[in-house]
Amino acid sequence: MMAAKLSFGEAILLASAASAQLYPDQSPLNHTCALQEPLLSCPPQDPSLVDSCCVETFGGLLLTTQFWDTYTGRESEGQLLPADTWTLHGLWPDFCNGSYTQYCDLTRQYDPIPSPNTTNAKPNGTFVPPYTGPKIGTFLEPFGKFDLLEYMNTYWIAQNQDNAGFWGHEFSKHATCFSTFNTPCYGPEYKQHEDVVDFFETTIKYYKRVPTFTWLEKADITPSNSTTYSYADFRDTLSAEFGAIPFIGCSGPRYNTTEAGKNGTDSGFTVLNEVWYYEHAYGRPQEGNTIAVNATSTYQTNCAKAEGAIHYYARTNGSEKAPTVPY
Ligand SMILES: *[C@@H]1O[C@H](CO)[C@@H](O)[C@H](O)[C@H]1NC(C)=O
Ligand SMILES: *[C@@H]1O[C@H](CO)[C@@H](O)[C@H](O)[C@H]1NC(C)=O
Ligand SMILES: *[C@@H]1O[C@H](CO)[C@@H](O)[C@H](O)[C@H]1NC(C)=O
Ligand SMILES: *[C@@H]1O[C@H](CO)[C@@H](O)[C@H](O)[C@H]1NC(C)=O
Ligand SMILES: *[C@@H]1O[C@H](CO)[C@@H](O)[C@H](O)[C@H]1NC(C)=O
Ligand SMILES: *[C@@H]1O[C@H](CO)[C@@H](O)[C@H](O)[C@H]1NC(C)=O
Ligand SMILES: *[C@@H]1O[C@H](CO)[C@@H](O)[C@H](O)[C@H]1NC(C)=O
Ligand SMILES: *[C@@H]1O[C@H](CO)[C@@H](O)[C@H](O)[C@H]1NC(C)=O
Ligand SMILES: *[C@@H]1O[C@H](CO)[C@@H](O)[C@H](O)[C@H]1NC(C)=O
User: Fold this and answer.
1) Which of 13, 41, 94, 95 to mutate to test the pocket of ligand 2 (most atoms within 8 A of CB)?
2) How far is the CA of 296 from the centre of ligand 2 (A)?
3) Is 49 within the bounds of a domain?
4) Domain with 232 in it
5) Between 20 and 30 A from 253 (CA), which of 39, 124, 126, 317?
6) How far is residue 261 CA from its own chain's centroid?
7) Which ligand is nearest to the CA of 14?
8) H or E segment to which residue 151 belongs
């Protein structure tokens, strides 16, 4: 569920990847964000001219990402999908040009299964050591964030992995690459893992604003193992609701290998399973003051575009349950 789906754009090796500071010359200010004009994150601001804890100066193109999985692979352990709801994947900081980097601070490496296993996805990148400590969910306990934990265990669901392992992956691979979730941003009173709590809360703030299932349902697009849909149905419905064109991702067989698409030129995939919503943020992403932007025109989908080519499958019987906490 991780590596293949996340490969997009170009990973960039940073000489400073293992240091806690994304910028050696980060602002000497004490990160009182009320004093910093909340500038827009893209095109990128110069980190030597603004407080990079108060304006996202590293990964200014935010992606709110969700999955539509039909099973978890861990049903027997009670890991189930929330009925009638797309699940949370993450909140990613791409560069304004659409490329991205990952595992930017190895002092905050909480991913038990790093994927890829080097910082630049190449054999010559810095090795990302698998994490073996207490699960990241336990970091929330000293903060008394049991409600947050319950929400995450309801909506932030992994496939073929325990939920907390997946949350650790999302944090260490992606959150460490934001300038605004960097530990110095929390000032001299920083409490260990405060950045983790802040990132999880912020990710949920973004997730709640894009109720994909409900948006599709309003347009009579609901999961089905007998009906198929067209890519344009998803694109037009979600774009109208969100205000910009998201990336829509598919897996499964390529259309040209199916009976209907055989010998054709449409080789897109046919099973809907992801959506990525793109935004730029004013000031700290934590505040949620954003503008929706289109996914890059060269990569808006990998799904087949032929009429009726897309399956939006119903979940496997026994793989979902009614959520006990509200979306
Ligand atoms: C930031 O705080 C430190 C004390 O923690 C202080 O010495 C320093 O002068 C402050 N910097 C600014 C720009 O106010
Ligand atoms: C995209 O932006 C990043 C950050 O500014 C830069 O390092 C990278 O070289 C750029 N990539 C391309 C393909 O322009
Ligand atoms: C991690 O990297 C090593 C060395 O490049 C490679 O041999 C190994 O197969 C990789 N492991 C995974 C799980 O990708
Ligand atoms: C790392 O390997 C890639 C090819 O996999 C190469 O393009 C790049 O120049 C190498 N970087 C360094 C620093 O050796
Ligand atoms: C696909 O090509 C094969 C061999 O060229 C042909 O027998 C078959 O009828 C074609 N199928 C369709 C749907 O066009
Ligand atoms: C389907 O399209 C892909 C990508 O263009 C191609 O590699 C593959 O050979 C095609 N398969 C068939 C059965 O036509
Ligand atoms: C997004 O794409 C749509 C359709 O191509 C276009 O009408 C709209 O102006 C674009 N929005 C932005 C902000 O570029
Ligand atoms: C619908 O089809 C998918 C894909 O084959 C399957 O995983 C799922 O179990 C099916 N759902 C139901 C309710 O039969
Ligand atoms: C799933 O359950 C529905 C009724 O809830 C039933 O109609 C269907 O046959 C079941 N599918 C499978 C694959 O067991």
Assistant:
1) 95
2) 14
3) yes
4) 38-327
5) 317
6) 31
7) 2
8) helix 146-155
245 lines ligand 7 (CB under 6 A): yes
Per the listing, tokens 């496997």 go with 316
- Which tens digit of pLDDT belongs to each residue from 153-203? 999 999 999 999 999 999 999 999 999 999 999 988 899 999 999 999 999
Overall domain count for the chain: 1
Q: What angle do CA 273, 275, 276 make, to 5 degrees?
A: 145
Check if 96 has its Cβ closer than 6 Å to any atom of ligand 7. Answer: no
> Is 0.70 surpassed by the pTM of this model?
yes
Residue 28, in any domain of the structure:
no
Q: What is the CATH number of the domain that holds 266?
A: 3.90.730.10
Confirm whether 29 is domain-assigned. no
Q: What is the pLDDT of residue 48?
A: 86
Active site residues: 89, 170, 174
What distance in Å separates the CA atoms of residue 202 and residue 280, rounded to the nearest whole number? 14
Question: How many residues in total does the chain contain?
Answer: 327
Is residue 196 lining ligand 7, measured as CB closer than 6 Å? no
The answer to whether residues 228 and 269 touch, using CB atoms and an 8 Å cutoff, is no
Within-domain flag for 26: no
Please report the pLDDT score of residue 188 as a whole number.
Answer: 82
* Cα-to-centroid distance, 318 and ligand 9 (Å): 10
